[in-house]
Design brief:
- The chain is mainly alpha-helical.
- Helix content is 63%, strand content 11%.
- The chain has four helices and three strands; from the N terminus they run αβββααα.
- The protein has a three-stranded antiparallel β-sheet, covered by helices on one side.
- Helix 1 packs antiparallel against helix 3.
- The longest helix has 49 residues.
């Protein structure tokens, strides 16, 4: 699938980029010769990797050159790293949300127990309860 962005597919694409980088190391560039109506993607050593003869293909050639194996590999590594960080942050957010809800429920339960112990109605806020407890000391 061309639009498969799963981690598994990204790792496959990274391996392809690694192999392409071994075959044609270095940054890729373009060799555009308008007088010959030709554009080429060239490896770091100047070796042409692909050539196109249509003026409209200059953008395609430039795009291919900008996606050299090293850049592609680094982009994929960054995507995978950011996905892992995002997953960690989502789990941390869930943990804090659950812990926060549990802590709030616990505190409200404690407040209700203290309200009953000092003889205050359920609608009393924590400040009123605290003032009553202080007066009892």
């Amino acid at each position: 699938m061309p639009n498969d962005r799963s981690t598994e597919r990204l790792l496959q694409r990274k391996q392809i980029a690694v192999e392409a980088g071994k075959a044609h190391p270095g940054e890729w560039g373009t060799d555009i010769r308008y007088n010959l109506k030709m554009a080429a993607v060239c490896a770091g050593n100047g070796e042409p990797l692909c050539m196109m003869t249509n003026d409209e293909d200059v953008a395609t050639v430039t795009h291919i050159a900008l996606c050299d194996p090293g850049t592609t590999r680094e982009d994929i590594e960054e995507i995978i790293k950011l996905r892992a960080e995002n997953e960690r942050l989502e789990l941390e957010n869930k943990r804090l949300t659950v812990a926060g809800a549990n802590d709030e429920a616990y505190l409200l339960t404690c407040l209700d127990i203290i309200r009953k112990a000092v003889g205050m109605p359920v609608g009393s806020d924590w400040q009123q309860v605290a003032e009553r407890v202080e007066r009892l000391d």
